[in-house]
């Protein structure tokens, strides 16, 4: 996995307290979570209210909020719009750490998105308690999922993005994570885009159910 070293976490500086990899120390499913990353018990939705209307709120989570999660945010927003759900969903993204708060998207992520007609405007932010109540808190890899559990997010709200990809399991353990492209070349960002693309139909389907 690209970036799977103590100092290689979406550009975050190394410190003694940093996790040793993007995927975290424990990659297995947590209590109350199915191996696919989907909750094993029904979830109660608490909708956000925008302009007096109730919307499903989706928050994507990666490490620094400059590569994977903003790519997922931008791509999901278009997918929801194309599915006729754009006015019924609120989409955002955050990072588990504060290393890039206030910065724009990684230039390579922006270039990959722009090449496919996506908007690239973005300002990085960090996970906060206000994000815990999103209807779906979507982790980009198992390390982010584990961080959400430790932060106290309701397990029934947590998803792994690639759990929506019906073919992700064909890649074995690597199939659980959207690969970290930060320390690779431009092809890593193409891979990230394709992995997100494969998961979006499943995510759209669940959000459609929530809006029904």
UniProtKB/TrEMBL annotation:
The keyword Methyltransferase belongs to this UniProt entry's keyword annotation: no
Gene3D superfamilies linked: 3.40.50.2300
Basic and acidic residues: bias regions: 1-10
Active-site annotation: 62, 68, 180
Annotated ranges, domain Phosphotyrosine protein phosphatase I: 56-206
Domain of life according to the entry: Bacteria
EC number(s) on file: 3.1.3.48
Residue ranges, compositional bias (Low complexity): 31-40
InterPro entries given in the database record: LMW_PTPase, Ptyr_pPase, Ptyr_pPase_sf, Tyr_phospatase_low_mol_wt
Positions of region (Disordered): 1-52
EC top class named in words: hydrolase
Gene Ontology MF, one: protein tyrosine phosphatase activity
Keywords assigned: Hydrolase, Protein phosphatase
PANTHER family cross-referenced by the UniProt entry: LOW MOLECULAR WEIGHT PHOSPHOTYROSINE PROTEIN PHOSPHATASE, LOW MOLECULAR WEIGHT PROTEIN TYROSINE PHOSPHATASE
Family of this protein: Belongs to the low molecular weight phosphotyrosine protein phosphatase family.
Protein name: protein-tyrosine-phosphatase
């Amino acid at each position: 996995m690209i970036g799977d070293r103590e100092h290689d976490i979406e550009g975050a500086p190394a410190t003694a307290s940093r996790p040793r990899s993007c995927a975290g120390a424990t990659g297995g499913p947590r209590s109350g979570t199915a191996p696919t990353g989907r909750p094993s018990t029904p979830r109660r939705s608490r909708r956000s209210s925008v302009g007096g209307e109730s919307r499903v709120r989706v928050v994507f989570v990666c490490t620094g909020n400059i590569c994977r999660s903003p790519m997922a945010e931008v791509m999901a927003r278009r997918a929801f719009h194309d599915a006729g759900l754009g006015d019924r969903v609120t989409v955002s993204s955050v990072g588990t750490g504060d290393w890039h708060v206030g910065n724009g998207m990684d230039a390579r992520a922006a270039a990959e998105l722009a090449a496919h007609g996506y908007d690239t405007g973005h300002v990085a932010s960090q996970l906060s308690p206000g994000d815990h109540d999103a209807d779906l808190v979507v982790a980009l890899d198992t390390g982010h999922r584990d961080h959400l559990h430790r932060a106290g997010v309701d397990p029934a709200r947590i998803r792994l993005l690639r759990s929506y990809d019906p073919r992700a399991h064909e890649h074995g353990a690597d199939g659980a994570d959207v690969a970290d492209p930060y320390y690779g070349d431009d092809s890593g960002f193409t891979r990230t885009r394709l992995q997100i693309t494969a998961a979006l139909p499943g995510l759209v389907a669940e959000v459609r159910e929530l809006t029904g």
